């Protein structure tokens, strides 16, 4: 069974901390994505990557960065966590756009 | 920029009945893909159904079917014989053919009443 695995289901961090959210897929997918999900706002794209070491900004990249050193792993980094980054973070991967996404289970991040 | 609009924040349906969730989108592209995803409470989001814009025939997956109206830029999801397990938030999404990223609507929360 193909999988996208997010390392943490729940995370609580303090304001100003550097936070790493990890995502690993075992499907040899080229494309990987990070979204945040907030009530009433749907899913908003933070960053995405089409290949190793490549990254593209999404709609809301401010305050975030990403790393893709290996094809299967796509990390989201909050350089200095703030309370407005409290959210559900969803990682997804796809072989190509036409196939749709396979999602991870999500990480619910609370910044206090 | 492409936008996806789901005008129904919440919907409810009686078990065994049929419900339709609405979705409209805005694009200047002619080739694209449309999706419906299901996110059950506290569970992983999964792909329910997909539609290629170049196909006139509406996609069907068991009890799930779509009504794709390309000219109207409308893409509704019909769930027949609703089951308790269909209760979830449903997201409509749009993806162009030359980019892998998708744009999502705000979601519709579906309640199924026994």
Question: What keyword list fits this structure?
Answer:
A: about 110 residues; seven-stranded mixed β-sheet; three-stranded antiparallel β-sheet; 12 strands; globular; B: about 110 residues; mainly beta; six-stranded mixed β-sheet
Net shape of chain B: globular
Largest sheet of chain B: 6 strands, mixed
Most residues in contact: chain pair = A-B, 25 and 27 residues
The proportion of strand residues of chain A reads over 45%
The radius of gyration over CA of chain B amounts to 14 Å
Q: For the record, give the distance between the C-alpha atoms at the N and C termini of chain B, rounded to a whole number.
A: 41 Å
Q: Describe the sheet with the most strands of chain A.
A: 7 strands, mixed
Would you report the number of β strands of chain A? 12
In terms of per-residue confidence, which ranges of chain A show pLDDT below 50 for 5 or more consecutive residues?
none
Report low-confidence residues of chain B grouped into runs of 5 or more.
none
Summarize the structure.
Chain A is mainly β and 112 residues long. Chain A has strands at 4-6, 10-13, 19-21, 23-25, 31-38, 42-49, 56-57, 64-70, 73-78, 87-94, 102-103, 107-111.
Tell me what you see in this structure.
The complex is a heterodimer of chains A (112) and B (114). Helix content of chain A is 0%, strand content 53%. Chain A is built from no helices and 12 strands. Chain A has strands spanning 4-6, 10-13, 19-21, 23-25, 31-38, 42-49, 56-57, 64-70, 73-78, 87-94, 102-103, 107-111. The termini of chain A are far apart. In chain A, 38% of the residues are buried. The model of chain A has no long low-confidence stretch (mean pLDDT 94). Chain B is an all-beta fold and 114 residues long. Chain B starts with a strand and ends with a strand. The model of chain B has no long low-confidence stretch (mean pLDDT 93). The chains are: A mainly beta (112), B mainly beta (114). Chains A and B meet through strand 5, strand 6 and strand 11 of A and strand 5, strand 6, strand 10 and strand 11 of B.
